[in-house]
Amino acid sequence: MLERAARGFGDVAALRFGPRRVMLLSDPELIREVLVARHREFIKSYALQRARVLLGEGLLTSEEPLHLRQRRLAQPAFHRERIAGYGSVMATYAERVAEGWRPGGEVDVAREMTRLTLSIAGTTLFGADVAGEAEEISAALTDAIGLFDRLVNPLGPLLDRLPTPGTRRMRRARARLDATIYRMIAERRRSGVDRGDLLTMLLLAQDTEGDGGGMSDLQLRDEALTIFLAGHETTANALSWSWYLLARHPEAEAALHAEVDRVLGGRLPTADDLSALPYTRAVLAESMRVFPPAWVLGREPLQDVEIGGYRAPKGSIVLMSPWVTQRDPRWWSDPLRFDPARWTPETEAALPRFAYFPFGGGPRKCIGEGFAWMEGILLLAVFAQRWRLRLVPGHPVETLPQITLRPRHGIRMVAERRGG
Predict the structure, then answer these.
(1) Any idea where the domains of the chain sit in the sequence?
(2) Which helix (H) or strand (E) holds 175?
(3) Which CATH architecture has domain 38-294+358-417?
(4) Which is higher by pLDDT, 197 or 3?
(5) pTM as predicted
(6) Sequence-separated contacts (24+) of 217-220 with Cβ below 8 Å
């Protein structure tokens, strides 16, 4: 629907979702205007405001001045030097999963990547081994994300108060996630051990530029749950779609294998190898162009505003979709073709700034972007060293556009060990 609107009505397309007026922006300059130049004139859209029933006031859902304070407290945990230290954990966990596969065996790579990134997020961000709880936590997250339709439903707040099956699922999902997060917080407070992870930094952080205080347990819960969710869900989706696309484009798969073989020679990759794996990075970049995990962003104007010569009234929704813009033939030649070779420094330099924005932009840009790039590249390299993945014939692969872009039925593949 969004693609048809953009292609049929231009860079500013007017839509209506029930009683809500919606404006879809697909020109990179207009997207930059909303996310960067005039960001103070907007708040997050209705769906993310409603997501507070699950996430509370975390970085994804909070507004100023709380958002700025919380981002200052969390930012040091994502500095380049610190996330580089997580690389060995990422590669080791990936190797453990890769070695557990069997030649000729079927795997659902969407499920496998979700379990893997969940375990990595638990260890690197919170110093906790959640691998044993991964299935239950993943199921709770799936229930929570599956409530996307409810979040955008104008009757959602009313439904939240009724004992419907959806309400019960939402409450069970929140209770399960809360139990894990609050347990991590309580254990860390009792131990007093500085493990150098995100949770320790959030516990110890003080807002030196603001009120000088730290976070309450409730604030810690909101930030930890938000980063726990965002820190594995989007990367798992990006990797899942990458394996799907590589299986359909054997020339790109061969180029990926050649690079990891040449650079790594059979050893595990580290953060120091990232610059030597440009094609691996290009595979991930191109996958997120074609199938962006965060496929749509929304903002709500605080007052009537004019964008691109059109009025967006207060209370309306302004949408910007990486899915739409990153498939626009004005910015991308043969846009539906998966082609990692298009990612050259010259091509990137020539792109309008917001022709590609899988991590958003401006002050609300994803705080974990560097973490996600490193994790995606390292995990691609580990599995590509050992396995060639083939799609199971007849298995349907479809998009499920909820809060993130998941594969609706998973992605079932046959694992073939490289080199026999």
Answers:
(1) 38-294+358-417
(2) helix 165-191
(3) Orthogonal Bundle (1.10)
(4) 3
(5) 0.90
(6) 217/182, 217/185, 218/56, 219/57, 219/70, 220/185
